[in-house]
Amino acid sequence: MTRAYQTLHRDLTRRKGRHRALRAVDTDLARLEEMLIAFGSHPPRATRSNDPDLDAAIERQIARLLDLREKPHNEYWNAELDSNAGLGAQYILMMHFIGRVDAEKQRKLANYTRQWQTPGGWWSIHTGGPGHLSYSITCYFALKLAGDSPDAPHMVKARDWILAQGGAMRAGVELRLQLALFGQYDWAGVPPIPPWLVLLPYLPQLPGILERKTINIYDLSYWCRISLVPMSVLYELKPRKTLPPELGIDELFVEPAGQRVWKFDNYTDPGVFTLGGVIQLGAKLVKKFEGTIGSVIRKVALRKARDWILSHQDDSGDWGGIYPPVMYNIMALPLLGVDLDDPRLQRAFEALDRFTIHHPEVDGDHMQACVSPVWDTAWSLCALAEAGVDLSRPQYQRHVDWLYSRQILREGDWAVKNPGAIPGGWCFQFYNDFYPDLDDTAVVLYALLWGGGFRHGKCMRSEQVRIGLEWLLSMQNKDGGWSAFEQGVDKDLVNHIPFNDLDNMLDPSTADVTGHVLETLGHMGFTRDFAPVRRGIAFIRKTQDETGAWWGRWGVNYIYGTHGVLCGLAQVGEDMTQPYVRKAVDWLYGVQQQSGAWGEDCESYRHKELAGKGEPTPSQTAWALMALMAAGEVDDPRVARGVQWLLKTQKPNGGWEEDKFTGTGFPNAFYLNYHFYREYFPLMALGRYRNLKCGLKNV
Question: pLDDT tens digits for 449-463?
């Protein structure tokens, strides 16, 4: 080992002793390096089979995927990430709120917003989905601010639909706050979001059971925390952007102005003596007496919120690598004394520009929720490797090197509940240093193994993988599973707070992320003899649905979850003939369509009877196929039918059509269309099928 390597090893060993979770690693650095070198020298994947159509399809897709690399440097992949038009509409609202309207940007955002409106007048949160009331109100309001006449046919259609759904009084919590900022909704109808939440983590920690009965901002999922802090500033200061009456949305209320009852709803159990009822009562008391909170506490809370916000901004200008907190911080910080021309806010505007994609066909700007270069690059490399591309060759090392360069070696919010762990994860985006995630870290480590860079003389690469592995293991939850971003963000108490109307403020262990982690651990040589693997399998068994499938948190839905689980179980050496595994296999075959394909609609989150049902898609067909192959079903004729469907639906120059959303942001609230899911997952499935048919082990 090199001297630098030995120095790092000593430092890691010293630090590892401070953290109990890292002591679970049953291998020393030398053994890990041996495993990495062995993996890097594995036999190449198959490049020819007895099926010329299969071989031709794979070759077309390899060429296409390589051509899809981000230009001009071809270092990584980064696809457009569709969500819905609501984010662009919110951008229009933000510009009007801060008093800086870029007319050209507003015109392009409005063009894209109109493009998303359905013939029925509403806006949906996924292709072909039902109307979404809050986003439809947001889009209507934004278009009106952008100059659309309320008498225009598309505005009349939208208004009629909104009124038919009960009107603006039924808007969700977030939209209520946004409307209140413009004087279109009374603050009495907005649940309390007190800024003193940011003070709670600094109070003395309560013992045992009392700690479980209290909440602070670190008990909320990162994506809520990073937005709720600036939202609490807006709530506390209650600024109002005065609009001319003709730009308001009074026409979207069913109730006459004098008959509107402004109150916030109870979204949980209404019983007085239930946990939800007690919290609801507490929220009402906070609301009633919020004006009596001392000015000193108020000033301290707002100052602490300001400090917290500024301390969590990435150097790039982002907050959390996602759109909402950037928008809310641009709105809140000027109220706390940060000028809009301050370099920190200017970087924030630049971050939003990076989220924007122009669609020339409608001359419209799409505001993405975030970007996905690390995720897209890692999966693309895995797919290419499965398809027979030797990633250790020099022309592909730029991609491997780029992934290494994205490792995050600083502490983030995850360290609050996991102190002492060594940083080493990867995030989803270009910039999100405070919130690396377990799913990306697992898939990146898998991709790096395929990179073949683990040779004597390249010890630093082994060290980076070691650090990533240890961080991944240290983040295992007490229930044995892995969550997306942080450890222990799973208090049921959070589900009862009044502003959690979307039920998306927790980050518990999930089967899909746990499956991905297990698959990576299996590729590294760990089996069910390894204690963290055993705990992960126990979590998976405990969370299996009665149908045999697994619910998917970050992809749609039961097909995605079942795919992640079965691939993970197979890789760590689980006996795939066990009854619980066969039950999952039977479920997958049971939802296979006559064409041979699989598809599942986003509405399966709301209506469980739709589990595994929906328009067939290439990505979901690929997930189902890989799950079945992991369970040993490669020779079943039904698997061959699924493969044939992929071959028949591939476009002449490679690629597949997929308009349906198969990615999940928040179930029932926010969905995603990853434009490259239709590119790399089918290629991975076809490559894996060819390898197994040629007798190659799925290393």
Answer: 888 655 544 455 677
Last residue within a domain, chosen from 367, 387, 414: 367
Distance CA 224, CA 696 (A): 45
Read off the CATH number of the domain in which 563 is found. 1.50.10.20
Q: What would the DSSP string read from start to end of 455-496?
A: -TT-HHHHHHHHHHHHHHHHT--TTS-B-SS-SSB--GGGGG
Summarize pLDDT for 374-397 with one digit per residue, the tens. Answer: 999 999 999 999 999 998 888 999
Domain containing residue 198: 84-367
Q: Which residues are catalytic?
A: 439
Q: Residue 12's pLDDT is what?
A: 54
Q: Is the peptide bond before 72 cis (omega within 30 degrees of 0)?
A: yes
Pair (55, 118) in one structural domain? no
**Does 256 share its domain with 293?**
yes
Tokens for 308, please give them.
């917290």
Residues of the chain with pLDDT under 70: 1-44, 202-214, 265-294, 452-461, 698-699
Residue 284 lies in a domain: yes
Nearest to 116 by CA among 108, 125, 107: 125
- Side-chain-facing half-sphere of 649: CA atoms under 13 Å: 24
Count structural domains, the chain: 2
Cα separation, 210 vs 207, whole angstroms = 6
Are 69 and 100 members of one domain?
no
pLDDT score of 327: 97
Residue 179 and residue 260 in one domain: yes
Residue 255 confidence (pLDDT): 94
- Of 333, 367, 401, which residue is a domain's last? 367
At 294 the pLDDT is 60
- In whole angstroms, give the CA distance from residue 152 to residue 132: 21
pTM of the model: 0.92
Question: What pLDDT, on a 0 to 100 scale, did the predictor assign at position 26?
Answer: 43
* Own/partner long-range contacts of 692-699 (Cβ < 8 Å, ≥24 apart): 692/629, 692/634, 693/49, 693/50, 693/51, 693/634, 694/46, 694/49, 696/43, 696/45, 696/46, 698/570, 698/571, 698/629, 698/630, 699/39, 699/42, 699/43, 699/523
